[in-house]
Design brief:
With 242 residues, the chain is α/β, with parallel strands linked by helices. It has a domain of 160 residues: Rossmann fold. 34% of the residues lie in helices and 24% in strands. The strands form two sheets. A six-stranded mixed β-sheet has the order 5-6-7-3-8-9, sandwiched between helices. Strands 2-1-4 form a three-stranded antiparallel β-sheet, with helices on one face. The longest helix has 16 residues. 41% of the residues are buried.
Length: 242
Amino acid sequence: MNMRALSSELPIRFEDVSLTRGAVTLLDHITLEIEAGAPTVLIGPNGSGKTTLLRAAMGLVAPTRGRITWGGAEKPPPNRCAFVFQRPAMLRRSAAGNLRYALAVAGVPHAKRKGRIEELLRLVALDGLGKRPARLMSGGEQQRLALARALALGPAVLLLDEPTASLDPAATKAIEDVVRAVAASGIKVVMSTHDLGEARRVAGEIVLLHRGRLVERSKATEFLNSPKTEEARLFISGELLV
């Protein structure tokens, strides 16, 4: 697949971004720049702000203060970024039908859709399952189909919200294999997880969030081997962040 993150989409900049809901602070003065390269993995306990940060980046929720830009633009570039939810909704169609719909939305010519569907199904290890009703697939298969559907849009940036949550080890490995393949093709992956082992396996850089704050950010090897903050040291050692 000849897809790569272009300079016009990146970096994604968070400039002193806060987001509150009533008395609850979901994001607390986040300043962060996400650049092209290996996957950026957001980690932290449940409620740390990972999902909110991804949703804010996509424009699904608006910051209370601060601003978010994509390559200097105020909004995510149309059809150049895609978001996969933790529990993606499947259309009442076959696996191939879900992809056919996404390709139509992306403006792919009708004559090219069949070959593209086969390519996408192979990429996510669902080849041969195109006729299966999407809603009857297993959780891991649905998540891989959701990834393929997002990739049908030809994005330069792919945001993933805990894509392996509640999946068994085999399904988790299948998703991680897709993430690595996508990143190797040049697509920028920004992914959240509460699983430190997963971050260790796929991250190029790690961003630790806690209580809506950006606690620490560094290259994955540096973060895992030489954490700079007490929160990072606790998280890596398996202690609870409260």
